[in-house]
Structure formats: C-alpha cells, structure tokens
Specification:
single chain; about 400 residues; alpha/beta; TIM Barrel; eight-stranded parallel sheet; 12 helices; about 25% strand; elongated; binds pyridoxal-5'-phosphate
Amino acid sequence: MNALAATRDAGDPAVREALAGPRLHIDLGAVAANTRLLAGRAAALMAVVKADGFGHGAADVARTALAHGAVALGVATLAEGTALRAHGIAAPVLSWLNPVDADFDTALRARIELAVPGPAHLEAVVRAAASTGRRARVHLQVDTGMSRDGSDPAGWPELCRRARQAELIGLVQVVGVMSHLGCADTPGDPCTDAALEDFRAALGTVRAAGLRPRHRHLAATSATLTDPRTRFDLSRVGAGLVGIDPTGSTPLRPALTLTAPVVTVRTVPAGARVGYGHLGTTARRTHLALLPVGYADGLPRAASGRAEVLLRGRRCPVVGRISMDQLVVDTGDRPAEHGDTAVLFGPGGRGEPTVADWARWSGTIEHEVMTGLGSRLRRTVGRTAVPA
Ligand SMILES: *Cc1c(COP(=O)(O)O)cnc(C)c1O
C-alpha cells in the first residue's frame, strides 16, 4: 500500500474537510423549495416526518416545512410525535401507527392527534381522554384496498357509530378521516379509481353517522403530484419534501450529499482481486482508493459491482464488495491524492451519482436508501447543497 503523500498543506480547507471524515450534508433549502411546490398542489399540506424525516432529521424537516407552507405534521409512532414536541414544535401532529396499548395518555397531554383504525383503538383513546381530562382529536382511518392499516370496510359503519357516541359524551372529536393509496406511484392505475370510490363511500358513512370531520385526507406524494381528484382537504406528504417523486413527473430537489475522504491509495496490476470474496478483479494496471464508508453507513451492499462515486471530477467505479465500513474505488490512470474527497451521492448537478442511482444499483427505492443512512455519519445542515 502507498501511504498518501502529504502533498497538500494541512491548512488547505479540502484537507481539513478530509480529516473530519465522511459527511452527510442536508440542504434544507431543497426541502423548503419542495415544500412550496407541494403546498401549491395540495388543498393543505401535512409534512410527514416519520423515520427521522426520511433520514434528513425530523425536527429540521418539520420546522422547514412549517415555514414554507405545511400546516401540520404527520408521523407513524407516538414516540416520533413526542420527540417533535421535545424540540419545541407546537404545530398539529398526527400519529397513525400505534398498538392498542400505546401510551395514549401521554399522547393527549402532548396534544398529539391519533388515527383510529378500529373499535379497540377507539376504546383505548376514549379511556385516555377520560383519565387525562383531555378531549382526543382523532382521525378515523379506513382501508381502501391495501389490506394494511385502517378499518376494513365491513367494520367501518360500526366504528363511525361508536366514534359519534364518543363525540356526544365529549371525550373525542373526530377531526379527520383518512386512508392511503397503494398504487398512486403509477398514475392512471385503476386501483386508484377503486380506492377513490371506496373512500367516497366511507365518507358517506361518516356523514350518515352524524360526524363532520374537517380534514378528509387520502393523497401522499404521488397522488398529490399527479391526481387532483385525490387531494380533498389535506395531503400527507413525506417523500416529496426530501426530493423523491415516485411518479417521475415532477422535478424535485434532492437534499442529501454524502462525501468521504480518501484514506489510502495503491497501484495494482491487472488481475488484482479486490475485497471480500474477491468479487472485484482489475482489468488492467490501475489505481485504487479506499473510502471509509460502507453498508453500516447505509450504502447498500447490493450495489456492489454497479456503484460509482465522483472523485477528482470523474466517475469512478466501486470495485469489489462494499464492506461494512469501507469501499474501494478504481481511479484509473490517475491516483487520488491526500485531501481528495469523493462524492458518494448528491443532487446530481455536478456529475455525482444520486440517491436514485444507488437505489437503482441495489434494486430498491430512494426511500429505503435514505431511511437506512447510518447514525455514524457526521451530519451538517445548511440552506444550500455543499460544493464538493
Ligand atoms: C408514509 C406515509 C405517508 C407519506 O407518503 P409519501 O409517499 O412519503 O409522501 C402518508 N400517509 C401514510 C399513512 C404514510 O404511512
């Protein structure tokens, strides 16, 4: 192995950056721009910041979205909701995925609104309202074809009837009715037509039970961008805020840039084996550079053999298997130098790969790559994409 020659001054900013190690930079300017675009397509916008804001930092994404057009926040779990409150965020928060024995007392004390997918949840929320003396604000949740979260259609009239009873005794207020679309990523899929029909029927049942919820909400990112019929009173948008458009219809701005310094370089002959299982073999004499990021940091191991990084202005292939903490790139006829920093992914405007590329290379979606980014990464937050 060739030790990296210290050819650059240690005071050089590029060298200082390299010494600080891998960095995940979050561009809240992109989140702001995406929020404004999506708010323009929605009747009202709920910013979904589950899974730590899709890996971008829930509190940062929440504050940015609220400042640029979102009126409420959505999370899966109660713990995600109370964490927002602990950050001093006072906006309405809805949590929609909790076991029936979740701590709904704490939820009500924290003014967190709750999705109610069935009578057992309704009963638990009513009990919490009685014990805390706080009226629960609930969103009745109906399944419209995913067989996932939400009441099945058969139980819906009974759930509505019981919710109305709980309203009449003052323990709950039904402020919303919600469902979720399973096929909205494919605009024009008849599955969405069927879900819309089911949702409208469910709303009819709600009215017939005497309920008058203010927020009827069905659309997430894809439907908000492509199907105005699904927008109703509110859109619950997560992916779009962080630059993911599953429909490929709308240019949104990615907010993440992952960089890593070169740790060591070496010159190898043709036929050199690289990494675990010797998956990689060099085709000719070449230069390799070692980067201190791997699958523990969220770079999918399944991208081994396909992935590339940007280094010294050029795309360089990742050679061999991506390891837990490190990966090797082929820099071709030129060796990397001390102080060089590789761009693993970024917005894509300077020739670097994007999260979408990593998703494609590993057979998954951007959501999974973003939410899998590791806690070991040094994170910086700004209002612009960092220059590499
Ligand atoms: C995650 C989620 C959303 C947000 O979906 P995106 O496609 O990320 O905008 C909305 N509603 C529910 C119920 C969800 O689980």
